[in-house]
Write a structure and sequence with these properties.
Layout (H helix, E strand, L loop, with lengths): L2 H19 L14 E2 L21 E9 L5 H7 L7 E2 L13 E2 L7 E2 L2 E8 L3 E7 L5 E8 L5 E6 L20 E8 L2 E7 L13 E6 L4 E5 L11 E3 L2 E6 L7 E6 L5 E6 L4 E7 L2 E6 L2 E8 L5
Parallel strand pairs: 1-9, 3-4
Antiparallel strand pairs: 2-20, 5-6, 6-7, 7-8, 8-9, 10-11, 11-12, 12-13, 14-15, 15-16, 16-17, 18-19, 19-20
Length: about 300
């Protein structure tokens, strides 16, 4: 064998050895996960009302509204140095922009049974991995420890997918996906919504639900039509969410994190898509407008 050929053979062998020794993405761990199947939730029918401000509650105050170009999401993220707390799912469909995302940790499996990973949300201590048949039908939510990669808890939300009495002709449009999730302590907050008109599910859409992760039980479920934006924001003792759709009223909502009660709804120009906190302001990307909102502290605090 010629020297050059010998060197080439050695290089190829070393490369093969390196690749075989590289850590592979964990796949087998998913088979040991034991998820809690949650019973069908209450599908409340009464939409949120704008009641009188509660004493001591903060208020959402609109600071500015500026028209956008609808398709300039990436410019909005870049201009304000914003990012969602997400990991990159490399084969996710691209809407034409990229929110800065960290590489997906190797311990997060890409599949769970016959379902695939559709989104991965970064939290302080855990990764919240959502699995579904496709990118609009998340069913399982699994929490994995960020330090060890170990399974912490998981839920099967199959019973949350369809509102009761939804017209059969609308069934293909009204699957209520796991849109966003966040955790604090032993409480998981999850938004479920479908991406079509509220009337398609008789108004029973876009709920926030709080779940005790240690006991596997629901703590509260919000009124409908409060959370179909791509995310919600946790702010102290409150949650700021958003709802809107074509030719439907569009609002930001302030909810009590302890009870799910709607404390305020703030009319906005079009459907909120992203709500991201930066300092003392909330940057809100709506369908055709960019908003800045301030959470004003309650008097006397």
């Amino acid at each position: 064998m010629k020297p050059d050929a010998r060197r080439k053979t050695v290089v190829i062998a070393l490369l093969c050895l390196f690749v075989s020794a590289a850590p592979a993405r964990a796949q087998g761990d998913a088979g040991r996960w034991r998820l809690v199947t949650l019973p069908a939730p209450e599908f409340k029918r009464t939409p949120p009302r704008a009641g009188a401000p509660r004493r001591g509650a903060p208020r959402l105050t609109l600071v500015s509204t500026r028209p956008n170009q609808i398709t300039d999401e990436q410019a909005w993220f870049t201009r304000h140095s914003l990012a969602l707390p997400i990991y990159e799912v490399t084969d996710a469909p691209s809407p034409g922009w990229t929110s800065p995302a960290e590489p997906l940790p190797s311990f997060v499996p890409l599949r769970f049974g016959d379902l695939r990973l559709v989104r991965a949300i970064r939290q302080r201590e855990r990764v919240l991995a959502v699995y579904g048949a496709d990118f609009s039908s998340g069913r399982y939510l699994v929490a994995l420890d960020r330090a060890s990669g170990r399974f912490s808890y998981g839920f099967d939300f199959a019973a949350y997918a369809y509102a009761p009495d939804a017209p059969a002709r609308e069934r293909e449009f009204v699957y209520q996906d796991i849109v966003w999730a966040a955790e604090e302590g032993d409480t998981l907050y999850v938004a479920h919504a479908h991406n079509t008109y509220a009337r398609s599910s008789r108004g029973m859409n876009a709920y926030l639900t709080a779940i005790d992760t240690r006991r596997g039980r629901v703590l509260w479920r919000s009124a409908p039509l409060v959370a179909n934006a791509s995310n919600f924001e946790m702010v102290g003792d409150h949650i700021v969410s958003g709802y809107g759709f074509t030719r439907e009223p569009d609002f930001l909502y302030l909810l009590d994190k302890r009870t799910g009660a709607v404390l305020q709804r703030l009319p906005v120009r079009s459907g909120p898509e992203y709500i991201i906190r930066k300092g003392d302001r909330l940057h809100v990307r709506a369908y055709d407008a960019d908003l800045v909102v301030r959470l004003t502290a309650a008097a006397g605090r």
